[in-house]
Specification:
single chain, 418 residues, alpha/beta, Rossmann fold, Nonspecific Lipid-transfer Protein, Chain A, 2 domains, seven-stranded parallel β-sheet, five-stranded mixed β-sheet, 42% helix, elongated
């Protein structure tokens, strides 16, 4: 269906972009790999040239172009080269994206600029450069890898800058679909669950892949969209929903670990518990929304250290912490817990032999985590993955994200004792 079509894909040297490229290449499509990795990266797989080899091997024609979407001239040069090489552009996939899951005060200005430049401005400028050529195609499409615009404050409070940048890509869909209706189809595609990519490995740490699906599911969904007529436009599509409508019944083929609970992706008001059952997100009660504030009130009125599951968990942690944990972690964690067992608690994995208990840590915390006491116990006993808790809004993190990930690694070692 895409034989002879020319696809211009940003960020196609690896991950989702490359998966979409390889799917189209099987039809004999021409792929412009517009990405910035020309030399091998120390920690990320693939370059524009290795991706080109894979695309050619799959049956397509490849044109690797060094493109940093923050640089408008690089975009324009690549578009001109694509048109000169293949005679035009039929499809644009805006896949390149930058992410920083940090709160407002923790997000460095250079990170804000990066996300706005890559996600919003890069998408806008690449679309602008390709549109004159897309309008000449018989069945032109723009596909942005961006979410439906969900204005639930949950998706803003933990990573405001990232959310704004991704919704900026979605607003390009909203505006351009209407502006070019009848000429160019413009749609958005977003995964229902986390997708296993190099970025997800960095965000979630070891073991996260079991909660993810392969990039193939997005490649198949993208193929469905890009082979539809240009009248199919202005849609915000979720991969699994579309594929079910197309008749796909077996989704285990897309799982990294079939049968393992999957982590829901950002911006979708669905959370997955540890048994894999999808549930509608429940609105937090006033006391839970207050989080740390409500917890402080409890702390001040408490005459003695609380008892119960939270206190017992900290007692076990205190007994399990070793000098090796301190040496390898070098972080101090403060927990602001609401509900049963609420209050301020800490784990000190920086000072001396380490310690854990009720109250504020002996030195300033590197990471402050806010959540309910019940979810804290689930997290420390292996029933709730910290990454899942964070992505579903149950856990709020302020401070050093790298140290937060280190704690998750230590948890996996402690789970047997807890």
């Amino acid at each position: 269906k895409l034989a002879g079509c020319t696809l211009f894909i940003t960020g196609a040297s690896r991950g989702i972009g490359k998966a979409i490229a390889l799917k189209a290449a099987k039809d004999g499509a021409n792929i412009v790999i517009a990405a910035k990795t020309a030399e091998p990266h120390p920690s990320l797989p693939g370059t524009i040239y290795t991706a080109a080899e894979e695309i050619e091997a799959a049956g397509g024609k490849a044109l690797p172009c060094i493109v940093n979407v923050r640089e408008e001239q690089q975009i324009i040069n690549a578009v001109e080269k694509a048109v000169k090489t293949f005679g035009g552009i039929d499809i644009l996939v805006n896949n390149a994206s930058a992410i920083s899951l940090t709160g407002t005060l923790e997000t460095a200005t250079k990170k804000v600029n990066l996300m706005m430049d890559v996600n919003v401005r890069g998408t806008y400028l690449t679309s602008k450069a390709c549109l004159p050529h897309l309008r000449k195609s018989k069945n032109p499409h723009i596909l942005n890898l961006s979410p439906p615009m969900n204005l639930n404050p949950l998706w803003f409070k933990n990573h405001c800058a990232y959310t704004i940048s991704k919704y900026g890509m979605s607003m390009c869909v909203l505006g351009m679909a209407e502006e070019f209706r009848g000429e160019v189809a413009v749609n958005a595609l977003w995964p229902k669950t986390a997708i296993h990519t190099a970025a997800m490995d960095m965000l979630g740490g070891a073991g996260i892949e079991k909660q993810c699906r392969k990039t193939d599911i997005l490649a198949d969904a993208a193929y469905c969209i890009l082979t539809k007529p240009k009248t199919f436009t202005g849609n915000f599509i979720i991969d699994e929903v579309l594929l079910r409508e197309e008749g796909v019944k077996d989704f285990d083929v897309y799982a990294i670990a079939p049968g393992h609970p999957l982590m829901p992706d950002f911006f979708l008001d669905v959370e997955t518990d540890t048994t894999g059952t999808a549930q509608k997100e429940k609105k937090l009660s006033g006391s839970q929304q207050e989080g740390a504030g409500g917890a402080k009130v409890k702390t001040e009125s408490a005459a003695a250290e609380p008892s119960g599951p939270v206190a017992e968990t900290f007692r076990v942690i205190q007994g399990a912490v070793t000098e090796e944990h301190v040496r390898s972690t070098q972080g101090v964690y403060q927990f602001e817990l609401s509900g049963d067992g609420g209050g301020t608690w800490y784990i000190d994995l920086k000072s001396k032999a380490g310690s854990a208990g009720f109250g504020k840590p002996p030195v300033t915390a590197d990471v402050v985590m806010s959540m309910s006491g019940a979810d804290f116990v689930k997290m420390f006993t292996g029933k709730l993955k910290p990454t899942m808790a964070f992505m579903s809004g149950k856990l709020r993190i302020k401070g050093n994200m790298a140290l937060a990930i280190k704690l998750e690694k230590m948890l996996s070692q402690l789970n047997s004792k807890l």
